[in-house]
Amino acid sequence: MKQWFWAILLFICAGIIVGIAWAANFIDIAPDEGRLVMSERHEGWGKERCQSCHVLSLIHKNAPNIRGVVRDKGYDTCTGCHGSNGTAAERRCIICHNSDDLPSTPILSGKHAHNFLRNQDTGNLSDQQCLTCHEASDMNGRWDINVDLTKLPDQWGLRSAYTHESEFCLRCHNREHQNANFPINGDYRDPIIAIEESWHYIDKHGFASGSGQRTYAGLRPPYRYGVVLPCTECHAMHGTENAKLILDDSRKGVFYSTFRQEGVPVRSINGDYSQLCVLCHQMEILVEDGGLDTGNGLFGVHQVGSDCTLCHTHGRAAQAGL
Question: How many independent structural domains does the chain possess?
């Protein structure tokens, strides 16, 4: 009798194990795009208690970069990555993405941040503001503009794919088809709304670029003339001490720069952006203060300490490059 009992118990346990393995392999908790946000295909759709099915000690055992913080903070972290699961649960992002738990993804520091209020870029970002730009990021460590950025409508009202990161910015920063949820008011010549048109001019740094043949020519490798740079090369969305969201640390932008990982400080005052420009620009022939330290240990740009915007402005069609 005991043998039959143990045989039956073993059979039941084996069935449970097989069932768990089947569920782990075949129950799809994400949409077809492979993102993390759950859809109705999730077996637990509409249930608020993630712990009903998911054991905290086993969650993300193959994701060591986040397993610790998820285990420490518990099930409150689930909605940030996986969505509200069809419930009224609040999506929480900053519970993990903060200066203590994930301090470099992204770097959240500085009194200015992009909170989508004109002339009020002061203060820390909230969970809801994170989701404005990153509604369904897959957070796999590889940047994909059409996965990691929210699809905002284009000028035809379509949620078309982005071909360049700055297209995302231009879906709001334009004159004629601004996002209804975040309208931007300003003078017709204001760069914050004129940038869509001026992006096509010789600018810092839209489709057209300098030729590299002028007096102040010279770039730090791997930068080269003719490359279209994203807005986030110079503007820090998540936090900066500088006005106009100019980055204050090379780790917050200049994605192609050799200084990207070094944390070179950047300070901009009264239109003097020499500490920013010098991260990418270095004159081949040093003239006009070209050998002068800009204040962050680097040199290679002219007119150090002066107002750069007197000559270099967004979208100045007559400008012949930087």
Answer: 1
- pTM comes to 0.83
Classify residue 261: in a domain, yes or no.
no
Q: Are 149 and 166 in contact (CB under 8 A)?
A: no
What tokens does 296 get? 């962050």
Query: Are 191 and 314 spatial neighbours (Cβ–Cβ below 8 Å)?
Result: yes
DSSP, res 269 = B
Task: Please enumerate in sequence order all residues whose Cβ is within 8 A of that of 248, keeping only pairs 6 or more positions apart, or say none.
Answer: 110, 236, 240, 241, 242, 265, 266, 267
The answer to whether 240 and 265 have CB atoms below 8 angstroms apart is: no
What phi, psi does 219 have (nearest 5°)?
-125, 150
250-280 pLDDT, tens digit each: 999 999 898 999 999 999 999 999 999 999 9
Both structure tokens of 256 = 């192609």
Residue 217 belongs to some domain of the structure? no
Question: 133 has which bridge partners?
Answer: none
Residue-level pLDDT at 27: 40
3-state DSSP helix/strand/coil % of the chain, to nearest 5: 25, 5, 70
Is residue 28 assigned to a domain? yes
Domain of residue 41: give its range: 21-82
Q: What is the tens place of the pLDDT at every residue in 210-224?
A: 777 888 889 999 998
Residue numbers in the chain where pLDDT is lower than 70: 1-35, 202-203, 209, 315-322
Residue 312: CB atoms within 10 A of its CB come to 16
Angle formed at CA 32 by CA 27 and CA 37, multiple of 5 degrees:
75
Find residue 235's DSSP bridge partners.
Answer: 246
According to the model, what pLDDT value does residue 4 have? 60
- Position 313 scores a pLDDT of 76
Question: Does residue 131 fall inside a structural domain?
Answer: no
Give the whole-angstrom CA distance, residue 70 versus residue 128: 20
